[in-house]
Amino acid sequence: MSDFLGMAAIFVLAMVALGLVRVLWGPANADRMMAAQLLGTGGISALLLVAAATDASALTDVALVMALLAAFASVVFVIGGARSGGGAPGREEPT
């Protein structure tokens, strides 16, 4: 069973690496933030899979802290967008 969980963690990390392309070439800041949230979610799921495969409870704690930080990052992004222009974050005005 631990072999299956390890392979699943590797698969999740490979998909997260593909999601990195969107972070680098996203057309707007909101797209980049959503891709960063995807990367965080994939990292959390990989940590949880490895924790289940190796019975390492410390990795579960690290995954929970990462999930909490990801939620705070989203809130800060939205608040920062509301303060800067009143519009949706990442929506630049055409010049």
Note down, in words, how this protein is organized:
- The protein is an all-alpha fold.
- The chain has one domain (2-85).
- Helix content is 83%, strand content 0%.
- The chain contains 3 helices and no strands.
- Helix 1 (2-25) runs antiparallel to helix 2 and helix 2 (29-54) runs antiparallel to helix 3 (57-85).
- The protein is flat, with a radius of gyration of 16 Å.
- The termini are far apart.
- The mean pLDDT is 81.
List the helices and strands and how they pair.
Layout: H1 2-25, H2 29-54, H3 57-85
Helix pairs in contact: 1-2, 2-3
Structure keywords:
single chain; 95 residues; 0% strand
Kindly summarize this structure in a few lines:
This protein has 95 residues and is an all-alpha fold. Helices cover 83% and strands 0% of the residues.
Strand segment count: 0
Radius of gyration: 16 Å
Mean pLDDT comes to 81
Percent helix, as a range, is over 70%
- Can you write the helix and strand succession as a string? HHH
Q: How would you sum up the global shape?
A: flat
| Low-confidence runs | none
* Overall SS class: mainly alpha
Largest sheet: none
* Number of helical elements: 3
Beta-strand percentage?
under 5%
Distance between the terminal alpha carbons, to the nearest Å? 56 Å
Count of the domains: 1
Assembly type of the chains comes to single chain
